[in-house]
Amino acid sequence: MVKERLIFSVFLFLIISSMVFSAFGFNHIAAFMPLVVGIPVLILSFIDVVKEVKRANLESKQNKESETSGSLKDWFKLNNNEFRIWLWFTSFILGIILTGILFAGALFMFFFITFEAKQKWWVSLLITVSLVMAVYLFFDTALGLTFYRGIFF
Q1: Cβ proximity of 103 and 92 under 8 Å
Q2: DSSP string, 60-111
């Protein structure tokens, strides 16, 4: 599993770096937004590659020291984080489809901060309200863009 994650991280880093380097050839006005978004993502992607290399080295040392039993329970224990991430992701996408991006984003952010980051509910609510208001004011009011409203709203 670690090799696949490392391969994915390197592949993602290569895609992002090619996009950032191609943005340098754009007109300076057209290159502004891809570079503002792309350079921090490129840095984070590089950090992810370094982290995955360290994880691969650590796991290869642990595999040499101990041999796993290969049971289904051990497999679920090793892949618990990936299942939780997929559950959060699918619930967020389903929430966007049903209720719209702003409402689903607010719910997702509140529940994720409360349950995954293990913050108190009032801290989660304060962060959620402040970020949703900032996003709404910037995109809807300042830029005049409308959000996807969803099936039910």
Answers
A1: no
A2: HHHHHH------HHHHHHHTHHHHHHHHHHHHHHHHHHHH-HHHHHHHHHHH
148: left (phi over 0), alpha (psi -120 to 50) or beta: beta
pLDDT of residue 72: 62
Q: What are the pLDDT digits (tens) for 28-69?
A: 888 888 888 888 899 989 998 888 888 888 877 776 655 555
Q: Where are the domains of the chain?
A: 2-67, 78-142
* Residue 106 burial by Cβ neighbours in a 10 Å radius (0-12, 13-18, 19+): buried
Q: Give the Cβ contact number of residue 142 at 10 Å.
A: 9
DSSP 141: I
Give this prediction's pTM.
0.51
| Run of H or E residues at 14 | helix 2-23
* 85: amino acid identity, one letter: I
